[in-house]
Design a protein that fits this description.
Bound molecules: S-adenosylmethionine
Number of helices: 11
CATH class: Alpha Beta
Low-confidence stretches: none
Largest sheet: 7 strands, mixed
Structural class: alpha/beta
CATH architecture: 3-Layer(aba) Sandwich
Radius of gyration: 19 Å
Mean pLDDT: 89
Strand order of the largest sheet: 5-4-3-6-9-11-10
């Protein structure tokens, strides 16, 4: 057995190198993340699980006096139900259409305690766009992307990746922080590979855990199990629309590959991980 101190791996460097190649990250031009279209945002909300917010809240236990910050909120999968049981919800999202769908649904339900900020998380200004502190801070199915920063280097647009900055900013603002993410999802990368296209995965959640550890944060870890009865082939359309550069015949192959009978079952019975801690 080697008794020498093992060289410390820089997990953030590893994470960054994976994000730079990740096939799940979509750009509409170099250095600029692709924003969600309105129909995609509507589709996303329509096919989200009603059980998920309940399962997550069994862990969070939101109180009526709580203020919540939901970062990378999407169309309001959590913000809409959580606004009904909390004092206020502030949401941040880079996609204007996600926020439009969220506000349309809030208005239809008579919800008036959601405030939104249409910015990249790392560009959100504390004290101006958002408050100095929240009881609960949440990133649901968005944490890797919150480390994105659109910038310019030598007059060229460039996307920098800094998850440590994103996590420190969350940590500074919240009393209780929750990061949730799907586990073991069947993703479309194998179909891309089948088409001879790039198929670089997202960073494993173990990498996130080790980055937190290197920041001195020891998160609690919980697993959420819930079903999504709204799952149907719209997921395929959603997935398809996010994949780069597929020609029509490639989209057909992609859809056939994702149409595997086992997939709907896997998607209906969902397993999510949650890292959470108190500051
Ligand atoms: C997969 S959706 C998750 C939506 C929702 N939180 C949920 O759990 O269903 C990821 C969201 O993060 C947003 N997003 C991506 N990068 C972001 C960034 N750097 N800052 C803020 N929002 C971002 C996207 O626009 C999208 O709405």
């Amino acid at each position: 057995m080697n008794t020498e101190t093992p060289q410390k791996l820089d997990w953030h460097d590893l994470w960054r190198s994976i994000m730079e190649k990740c096939s799940g990250v979509n750009y509409d031009q170099p250095g600029h993340l692709k924003r969600w279209e309105k129909d995609q945002a509507n589709d996303y909300l329509k096919h989200s699980s009603e059980e998920y917010p309940k399962a997550l809240n069994d862990l969070i236990r939101i109180r009526p006096e709580d203020s919540i910050l939901d970062i990378g909120c999407g169309p309001g999968v959590l913000a809409l139900p959580f606004s009904l049981i909390s004092k206020s919800v502030t949401v941040v999202d880079i996609s204007e259409n996600m926020l439009k769908v969220l506000h349309e649904n809030a208005a239809a339900k008579g919800i008036t305690n959601i405030k939104s900020v249409n910015k990249c998380w790392l560009d959100t200004c504390v004290g101006a766009d958002i408050s100095q502190g929240y009881d609960v801070v949440i990133s649901s199915n968005s944490i890797n992307l919150l480390g994105a920063q659109e910038t310019t280097v030598n007059n060229q647009p460039r996307l920098e990746w800094d998850l440590v900055a994103a996590l420190k900013k969350m940590n500074q603002l919240g009393k209780r922080i929750y990061l949730s993410f799907p586990l073991f999802i069947q993703n479309h990368l194998s179909s891309l590979k089948h088409l001879g296209k790039k198929s670089n995965p997202w960073p494993d959640y173990v990498i996130l855990h080790n980055i937190l550890y290197q920041l001195g944060i020891r998160p609690n870890i919980n697993i959420l199990k819930f079903t999504n009865t709204h799952f149907d082939d719209a997921y395929l359309r959603h997935c398809k629309s996010w994949v780069h550069d597929l020609r029509d015949h490639e989209r057909d192959v992609f859809e056939r590959q994702n149409g595997d009978q086992k997939v709907p079952g896997l998607r209906r019975n969902q397993l999510w991980g949650v890292f959470w801690w108190k500051t």
